[in-house]
Specification:
It is a single chain. The protein is an alpha/beta fold. Helix content is 43%, strand content 18%. Helix 6 (122-134) links the parallel strand 4 (110-115) and strand 5 (143-147). The relative contact order is 0.22.
Length: 153
């Protein structure tokens, strides 16, 4: 079931990506499955011969730590990081959370909101989106919604 959902999400993402659009971000509340989706979508895209990079900008920065032991000095600037990744990869998928700098969303062509059926997670996500909009980092055309973790009632 999860594999089929990931493939559906991937199809939607590929359909919405244009050739010149290479940066997408995923944002969701804790435990919404955002990182799980990011990793699986990247894996499926790589199997389809896309050259994909994952940029982990979550508070935990688990992927980042594996390669750099969290040396923040390596992160020169947002522009340099994204420019470097785009030189080497077709698609950059940014795994984000509510602590991620708004500029990452501004550089993203699409922002995928990962939401569960848990009503308590809607308010913090809505508040974060309002904050991003007030900074002109996103607009309604960029936003896509993924309803994750289907529950059978």
């Amino acid at each position: 079931m999860k594999k089929n959902r990931n493939r559906i999400y991937l199809e939607i993402i590929l359909k919405n990506l244009q050739e010149n659009k290479k940066i997408v971000s995923f944002i969701g509340a804790s435990q919404s499955g955002t990182s799980f989706l990011v990793n699986n979508i990247a894996r499926i895209m790589a199997r389809r011969n896309f050259d994909v990079a994952i940029l982990d900008m979550t508070q935990n920065k688990d992927s980042y730590y594996i390669y750099t032991q969290n040396k923040e000095s390596i992160r020169v600037s947002i522009e340099n990081i994204l420019e470097t990744l785009l030189k080497k990869h077709q698609v950059v998928i940014i795994d984000t959370d509510f602590s991620t700098d708004a500029d990452y969303f501004a550089y993203s062509e699409q922002v995928y909101l990962v939401q569960t059926m848990d009503i308590l997670t809607i308010q913090p996500l809505t508040e974060f989106l309002s904050n991003l909009k007030s900074k002109n980092a996103i607009n309604n055309e960029k936003i896509r919604i993924i309803l994750n973790k289907f529950m059978n009632f």
